[in-house]
Amino acid sequence: PSDHSFVDCAADALGNFHLVWLDSRGGPKGLRYANSRDGGKSWSKNSTLKPETCECCWNTVAVGADGSVHALFRDKNPRDMAVISSTDHGASWSDPAKVGQFNWDFAGCPHVGGGLIARGSTLHALVWTGATGHSGAYHLSSSDQGRSWSAPQRIGDADARRGDLASTGGQSLAAVWDRVSDGESIVLAATSNDGGKTWREARQLSANGINA
């Protein structure tokens, strides 16, 4: 009845809506799911995808052309990002799979989620970790419905965080993130034409002297 937060929604090719959010109904804050097959007039019974998650990081939903549904969220212990997937339009869900095995042991609220998109049979994720020696934003991909992920590839430097992903189709990818240095936040972007194997040099989108 209260404490709903970090909602994301996506529509599949049939016009069905898929919704995820966090709430703490009767216990710790966890990841919930519902769908609508009539344009939002009515919704399925809420289901719990993960009973306990990080309390303060946003979730991202991505829908594949095959009707698969994927939710990216920050797990609890360790506080690495994870994906949970459904291949039957949200009727049943896989076990969560870590997106980058950083094993970040952090008893706090990082307030940073990630980006997730589905292109053909491939999922692309942009995640952030604060793990010592590995801090930064990373691109990873999965070709098996999120069950396993490629090795993390750093995007930007160790201060990159709060990223998102987009694509115009094919192998094109665009990543955006912000970077805080000397008390000023700037927004940066980089593109890839080979599905994230290589990335062009990052360029700044926000103007100098503005705290983006």
What do these coordinates show?
By secondary structure, the protein is an all-beta fold. 0% of the residues lie in helices and 44% in strands. It is built from no helices and 16 strands. The strands form four sheets. It has a four-stranded antiparallel beta sheet, with no helix packed on it. A four-stranded antiparallel beta sheet has the order 5-6-7-8, with no helix packed on it. Strand 6 and strand 7 form a beta hairpin. The model has no long low-confidence stretch (mean pLDDT 94).
Helices and strands, with pairings:
Blueprint: E1 5-11, E2 17-23, E3 30-36, E4 47-50, E5 60-63, E6 69-74, E7 81-86, E8 97-98, E9 115-119, E10 122-129, E11 136-142, E12 153-155, E13 160-166, E14 173-181, E15 184-192, E16 203-204
Brief characterization of the structure:
By secondary structure, the protein is mainly beta. The protein has strands spanning 5-11, 17-23, 30-36, 47-50, 60-63, 69-74, 81-86, 97-98, 115-119, 122-129, 136-142, 153-155, 160-166, 173-181, 184-192, 203-204. 38% of the residues are buried.
Secondary-structure-based class equals mainly beta
How far apart the termini lie comes to 35 Å
Low-confidence stretches: none
DSSP summary, beta strand count: 16
Helical proportion?
Answer: under 10%
What is the radius of gyration? Answer: 17 Å
Mean pLDDT: 94
Shape: globular
With helices defined by DSSP (H or I, 4 residues minimum), what is the helix count? 0
